[in-house]
Structures are given as structure tokens and as C-alpha cells.
Amino acid sequence: MGKKLVVGDVFLIPLDERRYGIGQLAGNWKGELYVVIYDKVVSAEASPADVDNERLQFAALTLDAKLHRGDWRIIGNRKENLETIPQPWFKVGVEGQAYVEARDRSITRPATATEATALRLRTVVAPVRLENALKALHGIGEWHPRFEELRAGYAAESADLMRHK
What we know:
The structure is a single chain. By secondary structure, the protein is an alpha+beta fold. The protein has one domain (9-163). The protein has helices at residues 65-68, 113-118, 127-137, 153-163, and strands spanning 9-14, 20-29, 32-42, 56-62, 73-77, 89-94, 97-102, 108-110, 124-125.
């Protein structure tokens, strides 16, 4: 507990007594974490390499509460796959004008009309929402429409849109 988080950290999200979702810290901007959760169920004996070549299920900006408290147990670090994880882009409003902004805020510039329409506003969700979405996907709890915004497709779509600029 209280361990310093490092980009690449792989962690387990408990589904029940024997099954876990597996996720990874794919970015950190001053405590605003970018986490991805893979479309894979593992046991408590999972290894960081279990994320290799797996499809992303969820991707979102969140905070460290579940990691800091140890609810999401870090099992190691995996940097080899980080280049393959799409980094989302967002729109932000500045004095009434839409701007595009990189996930890590390294780039901010006025948005084109297409970008302003296609990109989502930057939002940070509580880690419990990600956990509840994952559990609901596996039949534990109810699926809520607000979980849709957590799906990893947006990260890939926004990264692809910005790559073609």
C-alpha cells in the first residue's frame, strides 16, 4: 500500500474469489491515471506477461484510490507493450472555443470542426465505476448505460483520428 505507481504496472481487479480482471497503468499525468483493462479473466497467479497481445475492453482516465489501497493488487510491470496501447485525445473548452488535447496534455491546439464533433470532453471517472463495469460485463451486478463510455474503442478511434492529421 502507498507504493509509487509506475507506468506499465499490471494489476488485478477482483471479480469473485477465484477470477480477476487484468489491467495496466498506461499513463500518468500528475496523478490523473490512464488505465486500460483487458478482455481477459485470470487467476490470482497471473503474470504481467498475461496482458501481451490481449484485446482492450476498457480504457479511462481515473484516480489511484483502488491501487493505492491495494484493492487492485499490482502484480508487476510490463513496458514492452505500452507502445501498442492507444492514447486517447479529448476536446476541452477554452474561452468558448473547442481545443484538442493529448491525453498527457503535451499538445493543445484549436480543434477543427470535425475534431470538435468527434472528440469527447476529458472526463475522469472513479475507479469503482471501472470495476463495476468489468463485474457487470461478467454477470456480477447490473450493466448501466454510462459504462459504455468506458469501452476502449474511443481511445483507438480518437488516436486514429489524430494520427491522420
